[in-house]
Design a protein that fits this description.
about 15% strand; seven-stranded parallel beta sheet; alpha/beta; about 260 residues; Rossmann fold
Length: about 260
């Protein structure tokens, strides 16, 4: 039995990585999916993949740091699907630098994409998510660094800590509107973001992967499907009694070493 039959969803950062994996899984589980991303070519490719498998999907090109784009993305989704049940705020970037090395422009960009986007997408989605006759959910992508610190990642750590506390506050604000708000907190995951981290650090990607594996009791890094399955659990009726909290998905790294990186 499909877990999301008839559900209408919007996923930001859905052209690759965790967003793409979640979009494909949502579609397999019966949801209509709005692929929202700045990358049109990759986003349209995900739509084609879903439609080839018999699912329903649209692409909306969007800069999630801009209010007008976020409002348009929500409105186009509602127009296409007739409503909205699930918002997955997944878009994000990482900047590997400490306070002294981080420029003001980099700090502002990290906050705009990792934090402001959640505020904006939620602001425009909540009026459609709120419905006295049905439940809906917002899932935010945090990080193991929502809950712990790490070296040379100040803007990312700060932004992901904000995501966790936004999740708790939003859950309290909107519970009476039958909106659950939850947060997934992945550790290192095999996505283009991990490739970008290695590039910024000036090391081979495999070296970064190996050091991450060594810190995890499960002795591997995550893959996008690991995170997508957790998002599905939280977004479906399986997670109907969960709100205002985070699910850490990091192979035990946080438990063992107090850090997700």
């Amino acid at each position: 039995m499909q877990k999301l039959t008839g559900k209408r969803s919007l996923i930001t950062g859905a052209a690759s990585g965790i967003g793409r994996a979640t979009a494909l899984l949502f579609a397999q589980e019966g949801a209509s999916v709005a692929i929202v991303d700045i990358d049109k070519a990759r986003g349209c490719a995900v739509v084609d993949e879903i439609r080839t498998q018999g699912g329903q999907a649209i692409f909306v090109q969007c800069d999630v740091s801009k209010a007008s784009d976020c409002q348009r993305a929500v409105e186009e989704t509602v127009k296409a699907f007739g409503g909205l049940d699930i918002l997955f705020n997944n878009a994000g970037i990482v900047i590997r630098a400490n306070v002294l090395e981080t420029t003001e422009e980099e700090w502002d960009r990290a906050m705009a994409i990792n934090v402001k986007s959640i505020f904006l997408m939620s602001k425009y989605a909540i009026p459609y998510l709120a419905n006295p006759d049905r439940d809906s959910v917002i899932v935010n992508t945090g990080s193991a660094l929502s809950l712990a610190g790490a070296r040379n990642v100040i803007s990312y750590a700060a932004s992901k800590a904000a995501v966790y506390n936004m999740t708790k506050a939003m859950a309290l604000d909107h519970c009476l509107q039958r909106i659950r708000v939850v947060c997934v907190c992945p550790g290192d995951t095999a996505t283009p973001m991990l490739q970008e981290e290695a590039k910024q650090l000036g090391i081979p990607e495999q070296d970064l992967i190996n050091s991450s594996i060594a810190r995890r009791p499960l002795r591997r890094i995550g893959n996008p499907e690991d995170i997508a399955k957790a998002v599905l659990y939280l977004a479906s009726d399986d997670g109907r009694y969960i709100t205002g909290t985070a699910l850490v998905i990091d192979g035990g790294g946080l438990a063992a070493y107090g850090t997700g990186m």
